[in-house]
Specification:
alpha+beta; Beta-Lactamase; Helix Hairpins; 5-stranded antiparallel beta sheet; 12 helices; 14 strands; rod-shaped
């Protein structure tokens, strides 16, 4: 057998787990960027607010110095130093005049000269408020806010203030590792739970796979294409693929078994028919022997008086009549014994029953059985296998014939009830014991003497009628009567006939 390479459980865990991990990572990354954006936006707004507050003091200092004709640096230095000392995260402050010339530059580094990059005398400035985040060689990650120092439409200069954003960067980094850790933990827990539930889901399926694996689905006749089926199965490596492959083989075996069963059923039908013919043998022999004896007598008389042409002609007519009778009997037996099942045609049930009665005519007369026929005159033709229908009637009539004693009585009735045809065969024989009523349709069950019946007749009748959607029921009073009722549904369009 081709073993399962990849279990369904593994596929469920890998596929579902991968989808979940990808979704969780996308959610985590989205949350991280949103959180980063919120933190940075909050910091930008805060730093702009602080810078604008500083700008008010810086403008006041510039105005005051201009009015008092004092050096600008003297007043600005005081404001800037106080500002840097008061605000912990400020790294440096630079003030330019309206032309972009450096007026003042202070950094949070007491006792050291200001960094050389701020020593340029002039700088191109803009009236726009600008915020930028970058990594500074001396101060690390900073957020620089540049705004014009303007009031009443007049620009007094420009300011550049750098704020330390290392704490924000550390906070974002911490959030990243927190989300990463949470993602790993949640993913692990999810895979564990998924593995557990997939195990519970597939354990029964795996048991079924193991049980089917123990069944030998390959017969000797299938061994030729076994290599081909194994190759096809190699592309189906989980329990579902294995089950599909095995059920496909089981389907083929069932189809083959169905064909074999139908063949065996036909053989059983034919065997029961031959058994019925055997039970008719004595009557048939009598029906053949009587005409043969008459023919012999006619031939003897002709040989005695060959010149008597009138007598010869009369005896020849009698010989021809006897031969016709023999031919009729033989044709009836051959027609009943013919194995031509599974050929549906429209049949007249009254006519079919009458032909079976003709086969039993001698036996009925020999036992002085009274046969009452109550055929409905307006029955539709039905789609049925002609020979199988005759086989059903023959078996039921033979059972009634065996049940009744000398001078017995058998009644046969046909009628139409709604969309069903009803055939009732009633006899006044010995009846059936109550304990046997549920068994009489079982194969090989019989209460007759050995050699009289096979025990298959009623079982065959039931299978035939049920295959056409009909039913057979029986009611009996022991010592008084037995009634077999056959009900056949009418399908499709039926043609009414008058008998």
């Amino acid at each position: 057998m081709k073993r399962v390479k990849t279990s369904l459980k593994t596929k469920i865990v890998v596929f579902t787990g991968s989808v979940f991990v990808i979704l969780l990572l996308l959610i985590s990354i989205t949350l991280l960027f949103q959180w980063r954006s919120i933190i940075i936006d909050k910091e930008i707004k805060s730093n702009f607010a602080v810078t604008k507050t500083f700008a008010v003091s810086a403008i006041d200092a510039l105005i005051y110095q201009e009015q008092t004709e004092l050096q600008k640096e003297n007043v600005l230095e005081t404001y800037v130093d106080n500002f840097i000392n008061r605000i912990d995260n400020v790294k440096f402050v630079i003030i330019y005049d309206p032309a972009g010339t450096l007026i003042l530059a202070r950094e949070r580094s007491i006792g050291n000269n200001f960094h050389s990059e701020f020593a340029s005398a002039t700088r191109k400035m803009t009236k726009d408020e600008i915020c930028s985040i970058y990594r500074h060689n001396q101060f690390g990650w900073i957020m620089e806010v540049s705004i014009p120092l303007s009031i009443g439409g007049k620009i007094w200069g420009f300011s550049r203030i750098a704020y330390n954003v290392e704490p924000i960067r550390s906070e974002i980094k911490n959030v990243f590792f927190l989300l990463l850790g949470s993602t790993i933990i949640i993913t692990f827990l999810t895979l564990v739970v998924l593995y557990y539930f997939s195990y519970r889901l597939t354990i029964s399926l795996n048991d079924l796979v193991n049980e089917i694996d123990r069944i030998n689905l390959i017969s000797e006749s299938d061994s030729i294409d076994s290599s081909e089926t194994i190759i096809k199965a190699s592309s189906q490596n989980d329990e579902i693929g294995f089950l599909f492959h095995r059920f496909n083989k089981m389907k083929k075996r069932l189809e083959k078994s169905k064909i074999e069963l139908e063949i065996a059923q036909k053989q059983i039908y034919q065997a029961e028919k031959l058994a019925s013919i055997g039970r008719l043998a004595s009557g048939v022999a009598h029906q053949v022997n009587n005409p043969l004896n008459g023919i012999k007598s006619c031939i003897y008389a002709i040989q005695k008086e060959p010149e008597n042409l009138k007598q010869t002609n009369e005896y020849l007519e009698l010989i021809n009549e006897g031969l016709n009778n023999i031919e009729t009997v033989v044709q009836k037996l051959l027609g009943f014994a013919r194995q031509e099942h599974n050929h549906k045609t429209k049949i007249d049930i009254n006519e079919s029953i009458q032909k079976v009665i003709n086969l039993l005519d001698y036996r009925l007369k020999d036992k002085l059985i009274t046969l009452n026929l109550n055929f409905s005159s307006n029955l539709p033709l039905i789609e049925f296998d002609y020979f199988l229908f005759q086989e059903v009637i023959m078996n039921l009539l033979l059972n009634s014939f065996d049940a009744v004693s000398q001078n017995g009585k058998i009644d046969i009735k046909t009628e139409m009830i709604e969309d069903r045809l009803l055939i009732e065969i009633k006899d006044n024989g010995i009846g059936i014991p109550k304990e046997n009523l549920q068994k009489i349709f079982d194969p090989f069950f019989t209460t007759k003497e050995v050699g009289v019946g096979t025990g298959l007749g009623l079982s065959v009748c039931l299978n035939i009628i049920e295959s056409y959607g009909g039913t057979i029921s029986v009611s009996s009073i022991q010592g008084e009567e037995t009634i077999f009722t056959v009900v056949i549904p009418i399908r499709g369009e039926n043609e009414n006939i008058n008998n």
